[in-house]
Every structure is written in structure tokens, then in C-alpha cells.
């Protein structure tokens, strides 16, 4: 499979998810974005809690990244 075909195939699920999120909010893009931002905040808090609870030996010094690389 070529890189262009792979990129197009991998973007289809994201497009479907986007359509589902917008449909859930009856086409209100601002509400959809607001919900997604709330989800991000929640997941970041969960990541902070998990980081505090895990031992350094368990992860061999690995720490989660809070930003996409």
C-alpha cells in the first residue's frame, strides 16, 4: 500500500468519529469542541494522578508526556 493510500485509510475512522461527535451535539461545533476540551482536561488530571501513584521502579524512570510529540 502506498503512503498516500495508507494516510487516507487511517483518516477515515477519525472523520467518522468527528461526524459522530458533531451529530451527538446536533451540529453545534462549539458544544462539540467544549466537550472534547473537557475530556482532555479530565484525562490530563487522570494522568497526573497515575503519575503520582506509580513507583519509579515500575516504570524504570519513564514519565508520561503531557503534550503530543
Give your account of this protein's structure:
There is one protein chain. The longest helix has 25 residues, at 29-53. This protein has 69 residues and is mainly α. Helix content is 74%, strand content 0%.
What is the gist of this entry?
The chain has 69 residues and is mostly helical.
Q: What is the strand content? A: under 5%
Number of helices: 3
| Rg, Cα atoms, Å | 17 Å
Instruction: Work out the oligomeric state of the chains in this entry.
Output: single chain
SSE diagram, text form:
Blueprint: H1 3-24, H2 29-53, H3 56-59
Task: Give structural attributes.
69 residues, mainly alpha, 74% helix, elongated
